[in-house]
Design goal:
Chains: A mainly alpha, B mainly alpha, C alpha/beta
Shape of chain B: globular
Strand order of the largest sheet of chain A: 1-2
Distance between the termini of chain B: 23 Å
Number of helices of chain A: 13
Order of helices and strands of chain B: HHHHHHHHHHHH
Structural class of chain B: mainly alpha
CATH architecture of the largest domain in chain A: Orthogonal Bundle
Radius of gyration of chain A: 24 Å
Radius of gyration of chain B: 23 Å
Largest interface: A-B, 49 and 44 residues
CATH architecture of one domain in chain B: Orthogonal Bundle
CATH class of one domain in chain B: Mainly Alpha
Number of strands of chain A: 2
Number of domains of chain A: 2
Shape of chain A: globular
Number of strands of chain B: 0
Strand content of chain B: under 5%
Distance between the termini of chain A: 18 Å
CATH topology of the largest domain in chain A: MetI-like fold
CATH superfamily of the largest domain in chain A: MetI-like
CATH superfamily of one domain in chain B: MetI-like
Oligomer: heterotrimer
CATH class of the largest domain in chain A: Mainly Alpha
Chain lengths: 324, 301, 565
């Protein structure tokens, strides 16, 4: 079990290193960092001195090593566009994106799992067919269109909810949260639904498929044959066994949630990391792009490590060795 | 007769599934429209001389003030909506199918080889796939686009837009193919017909492509359909974000972005008609994908 | 008491309702073990599922009477039927590996089942569960009950399954192939347990199986089914010893006896399915006998696999699949290799064919050294001289290829025949030789039954002009009557072409019928090797003696007068 966790940890480090390498290559080879940092009036000699100071003439592997160790110490360099430290820029934006992503994920799980269970247990019901058709349309509508439709209906036509920005936020120890005011929640609702709909349909279809698979397994048929009460059969036996593959996919999806928040943030002008990333792409602000990449990969890797630990908690086969 | 139907079970299921048939009809109609756009369309939306500002902002025929020449109305530039949509769908489909082809060739090739050889080669391919997974589709696409902006000179950027966009989408989709092909290949590797072929001393390429590939086409076909939908959605999303195609050669996504300007004014058709069209196309493809999944995995029926 | 009268089950399909079983009559008294025997597709499992009310989705009981004591099972609401399941009728499935919920402890599963049917406290339920486990032979039950299913071995797991089935004191247990997935020793223990439970607790058992030996050993009465109908029913000695129905007679003829050797199996459709002599394929094979009879010698073969890695700092323990195996297959003879699952039989076959590389040892084919898997080039002559017939005819033929393409592949691959038309003709002739219609070349594998596919697989192996044939459990996926046909075919072909055969099987009786010499493999070690008649008549190794003693057989006096040899 310790070995299992360690193995995943090593793999995670590998993924992080690869992404850091990507970010570094981006920084080093897409355009010349020196011309980006200095103005037109800087002399060639000054440029060369700066190049030497920054160590850009050192061997490649040394530069990459320095880049990585700087990152580990929280030094992410400066933005080409605003000349601010990238670390600060990203840190300012993290709360907005994380709150949006987590609320969206919660919506998708709280609706998706029960809907998946229901449609798996009543595969031939009319409600099931309706739900399945709805979700099929759900995955087929681009996120931005869902956003536009929600804005149009609830923002423009009905005027119930705000259509852009975060509304009221509260500072809690440097974390700018919109979860503690009514205004904040009102502003969060539409973007979170927009972001959650796609994940919701995926979660539901996955739970349904896995649940149907489990319901056909021998141990469920055996539990049926010995008259285990239906409620226990569905939840204690079937759903529990469904959870292992489901949490895997949810872990993988979390990366998608954060990535798709780029679209949602753009539609709702939500001041998160995604919006920052879009702006930096438009201005070819390479340092910000690179760091965004690393941060996203970090969240992804972190979530998947947590998923691995959940496995161990759920599945005794990973916890206890065979003693035959 | 019964033997025949059992043999072509997919066909039987198809003619007995109204949803699949309607979806196929819609998808085929749109594709035909897109392919023959230059001959069907009233105006060429890329050619400024073929339309006029005087015809701008005309509503669809069933509303007052419409010009019956433009069935679904015109946009602010005076372009016929139907023409724009047909050309837009053409571009979306070209990019989607091209990206899908690249992704399928790359992904299936790597996945088959990883499943066949296993061991270190498999580990390397799968680690690369892991990294790719940590950077979701839209992020990869945005990133490649950003890199292209940084490297290519401005003049070339416009010319290479379509190529960059295609490559960006292809790179974000190959992992699906690789993982599916690898998993299916693993299953086939334990089948005795593969062992028989290896025992005979057949070349690995023959074992992979002649023996294994035909047996894993089912799941790959499903991925292909679902990913065509994803590719079209991704292209639309990128264009919507203003990173895909420019306004003078609009895809469906670009049309929707242009239409967004009219969200609050009365000209609803400029936004909602292309949107409806895009959704209809993607829904049809996804219904077909679902149908294929059921055919190849009868246990979920 | 269970009473079944005129039972019919139908499955609606888009081609109309398909009748799975019809006119089935059966009664089972308390304490009686009633065997339900038949080949695949006979509908025996459907009878069990209908009784317990768990027919697969669209299937339904169309007709007949089903009652348990005074209860009419067909009149129950779904809720009432669910109450009865476990309480009065329970079930045992084939595979103990998959019958238990992997995420719950044995204790939780037992207590849950007991409490579902009787109003007792958790403590009382636990006490009952522990007592029950002790009773069915799980030592230290109070401790072991806290374990998860994966912590038990296969045989122990099947005991746990049985404990779960009887923990609510049911009147009837439907046991669907309860010992098919188990090894001989464990099978014998489980059968003893079933017999004891029937006698002591007066539980009625419906024992569904394809294994005549199992029926002969423990069933009081037996019902023989075929294609959804009952062929014959009665006391076991009478039905098996003096069958009146032609189908039962044929079935008994096809069962290989363990205690003597017969020259050929008596097969009803012998005339149509036998070997055709004098055709083009036979001539082609005979002119290809450019090599003398070819034997195989293995010296000190060891095969190790990397074990599961459990620690970052320790090297994983290697798993030894084969240890110092010495084997000599005499030219032109059949060597039988017997062993239970996991004994390393298939690993040995893979080492010979080059799919696995041994870690040490040498192999000789005839007088030539046979290089290891990694060292053997793709063009090495042994790739043609050594051919294999696999266990599973459903996976050994590429389902996307035409039979013609499958059969002609060796002809062009080894460069025997250049002309494509000539290859097709030869393939068709070879099909005839193995007892199939030659027009099969234009069909696909899924259009054939398991036995026909195995004939095609044999034809493919022969088209490589092999001198050495490995048959890895060639009949274990087949019904017993088909098995008799394939065994006859292999015997005939061996005699015609002087093939040397390594015949691998877990079935002692089959090996006795086929092999000249026999080797017994256990945990990767050869326990005993000698001439077949000696080994079966006077086994020396303890393990062989145990295997022979525990294999369920029919008493000699029930056996039909087969052609003895």
């Amino acid at each position: 079990m310790v070995y299992f966790i360690l193995k995943r940890l090593v793999q995670s480090v590998f993924v992080m290193l690869a992404v850091a390498f990507l970010a570094f290559s981006l920084f080093r080879f897409v355009g010349d960092p020196i011309t980006q940092m200095t103005g037109v009036e800087t002399s060639v000699a000054d440029q060369e001195r700066l190049r030497e100071e920054l160590g850009l003439n050192d061997p490649f592997i040394l530069q990459f090593g320095r880049f990585t160790s700087d990152m580990l110490q929280g030094d992410f360099g400066f933005s080409y566009r605003t000349r601010q430290p990238v670390a600060e820029m990203i840190a300012d934006r993290i709360p907005a994106t994380l709150e949006l992503g987590v609320v969206a994920l919660l919506i998708s799980l709280l609706v998706g799992i029960p809907a998946g269970v229901y449609t798996a247990l009543r595969p031939r019901g009319i409600a099931t067919q309706a739900i399945l058709m709805t979700t099929l349309v759900g995955v087929s509508i681009p996120t931005f269109v869902i956003g536009i439709m929600l804005i149009f209906v609830f923002g423009v036509q009905l005027g119930w909810l705000p259509t852009f920005g975060r509304g009221g936020t509260v500072q809690i120890g440097g974390w700018e949260s919109s979860l503690f005011t009514l205004e904040g929640w009102r502003a969060l609702l539409l973007p979170a639904i927009t972001l959650g709909v796609y994940q919701l349909t995926l979660t539901m279809r996955l739970v349904r498929a896995e649940m149907m698979e489990v319901m056909r397994s021998d141990y469920i048929r055996f539990a049926m044959a010995r008259g285990v009460p239906m409620r226990k059969l569905h939840y204690r036996h079937a759903l529990a066994n469904t959870m292992v593959p489901v949490i895997t996919i949810i872990g993988l999806q979390f990366g998608g949630v954060i990535a798709f928040s780029i679209v949602t943030e753009s539609v709702f002008q939500w001041p998160g990391m995604g919006l920052l990333f879009l702006e930096s792409i438009r201005f070819v602000d390479i340092p910000v792009m690179g760091v965004y990449l690393v941060v996203i990969a970090f969240f992804f890797v972190l979530v998947n490590l947590i998923v691995d630990m959940l496995y161990v908690a759920i599945d005794p086969r990973l916890r206890i060795r065979d003693v035959q | 007769m019964i033997a025949f139907l059992k043999r072509y079970e997919g066909l039987w299921l198809f003619v007995h599934s109204p949803a699949a048939m309607v979806a196929a009809l819609v998808a085929v109609l749109i594709m035909i429209g897109a392919v023959f756009a230059p001959w069907i369309a009233l105006v060429n939306p890329y050619d400024l001389s073929s339309f006029s500002l005087f015809d701008g902002l005309l509503p669809p025929v069933w509303q007052d003030g419409a010009n019956p020449k433009y069935l679904l109305g015109t946009d602010d530039q005076g372009r016929d909506m139907i023409s724009s949509i047909l050309y837009g769908a053409r571009l979306s489909l070209v990019i989607g199918i091209a990206a899908l082809t690249i992704a399928a060739v790359l992904g299936v090739g790597l996945g088959l080889a990883a499943g066949y050889y296993g061991g270190r080669f498999d580990a390397i391919v799968m680690r690369i796939a892991d990294v790719q997974l940590a950077l979701p589709a839209i992020l990869t696409a945005l990133l490649i686009d950003g890199i292209a902006r940084g490297i290519l000179p401005a003049a070339m950027q416009q010319d290479l837009r379509v190529a960059v966009l295609t490559l960006a989408i292809a790179l974000s989709l190959w992992v699906n193919f690789a993982r599916t092909a690898r998993a299916s290949t693993f299953v086939q590797m334990n089948k005795e017909y593969v062992q028989a072929a290896i025992m005979m001393g057949q070349r690995p390429s023959r074992v992979m492509f002649v023996h294994i590939l035909p047996n894993i086409l089912g799941p790959l076909l499903v991925i292909m359909t679902v990913d065509l939908a994803s590719a079209i959605l991704l292209e639309a999303t990128l264009s919507f974000l203003g990173i895909g195609l420019p306004a003078d050669s609009p895809s469906l996504g670009t049309l929707i972005r242009i239409g967004m300007q009219f969200l609050l004014s009365g000209e609803w058709w400029i936004l909602w008609i292309p949107t409806l069209f895009l959704v209809a196309l993607v829904v049809s493809i996804n219904i077909l994908g679902d149908f294929l999944r059921d055919v190849f995995n009868p246990r979920l029926r | 008491m269970l009473t079944i009268k005129d039972l019919a089950v139908k499955f609606p399909s888009r081609f109309g309702d398909v009748t799975a079983i019809a006119d089935v009559d059966m009664t089972i008294k308390p304490g009686e073990i009633h065997g339900l025997v038949g080949e695949s597709g006979a509908g025996k499992s459907t009878v069990g599922a209908a009784v317990i009310g768990l027919l697969a989705a669209p299937g339904y009981v169309a007709n007949g009477k089903l009652s348990l004591g005074d209860t009419d099972l067909r009149k129950l609401t779904p809720e009432q039927a669910h109450e009865i399941r476990g309480d009065r009728i329970s079930m045992i499935f084939q595979d103990p590996q998959t019958s238990l919920n992997p995420l719950m402890t044995i204790e939780d599963q037992l207590i849950e089942t007991i409490q579902a049917h009787s109003d007792v406290s958790e403590t009382a339920a636990r006490t009952r569960a522990v007592d029950l486990l002790e009773e069915i032979g799980i030592k230290n039950a109070a401790e072991r009950i806290k374990a998860y299913p994966h912590q038990f071995s296969g045989g122990m797991r099947q005991r746990v399954v049985i404990a779960l089935a009887i923990c609510t004191d049911p009147e009837l247990i439907i046991a669907d192939e309860p010992t098919t997935a188990l090894d001989v020793a464990v099978q014998s223990q489980v059968l003893d347990l079933i017999r004891r439970l029937a006698r002591d607790r007066q539980i009625a058992f419906m024992l569904i199986t394809h294994d005549i030996g199992v029926i002969a050993q423990i069933a009081d009465r037996v019902t023989v089914m075929r294609n959804g109908r009952v062929m014959e029913t009665g006391e076991t000695p009478q039905v098996l010893g003096a069958p009146t129905h032609p189908y039962t007679q044929a079935l008994m003829d096809a069962v290989p006896p363990l205690d003597h050797r017969i020259a050929r199996f008596r097969v009803p459709e012998e005339d149509t399915a036998g070997v055709v002599t004098g055709n083009a394929a036979e001539k082609w094979l005979l002119e290809g006998q450019q090599y003398a009879l070819t034997g195989l010698t293995l010296q000190d073969i060891c095969v190790r696999f990397a074990g599961p890695r459990t620690s970052l700092f320790r090297k994983p323990e290697p798993y030894v699949a084969l240890k110092d195996v010495n084997l000599e297959v005499r030219p032109g003879s059949i060597m039988g290799l017997v062993g239970e699952s996991g004994s390393g039989k298939s690993t040995l076959a893979k080492a010979i064919t080059g799919l696995i590389t041994p870690s040490s040892g040498t192999m000789h084919l005839g007088d030539d050294i046979l290089p290891d898997g990694k060292a053997r080039s793709r063009h090495h002559p042994s790739r043609q001289l050594v051919q294999m017939v696999f266990q599973d005819p459903y996976s050994s033929l590429n389902s996307r290829h035409r039979i013609g393409a499958i059969l002609t592949e060796p002809l062009w691959f080894y460069g025997f025949v250049q002309d494509a038309k000539e290859r097709e003709r030869l393939a068709a002739a070879m099909l005839e030789l193995v007892g199939m219609a030659p027009d099969a070349v234009d069909k696909y594998p899924h259009q054939f039954s398991g036995g026909q596919r195995q004939r095609i697989a044999v034809a493919r192996a022969l088209l490589a002009r092999p001198r050495f044939l490995i048959c890895d459990e060639p009949t274990s996926a087949l019904d017993v009557s088909i098995q008799a046909e394939i065994l006859n075919l292999l015997k005939d072909l061996q005699a015609m072409f002087g093939l040397t055969i390594l015949f691998i099987s877990h079935n002692l009786a089959v090996v006795r019928q086929m092999a000249d010499d026999t080797a017994v493999l256990r945990n990767g070690v050869i326990e005993e090797m000698s001439a077949t008649e000696d080994l079966f008549a006077r086994p020396k190794a303890d393990y062989t003696q145990k295997l022979l003693a525990l294999t369920p057989v029919m008493p000699r006096e029930w056996q039909s007068e087969a052609v003895t040899g």
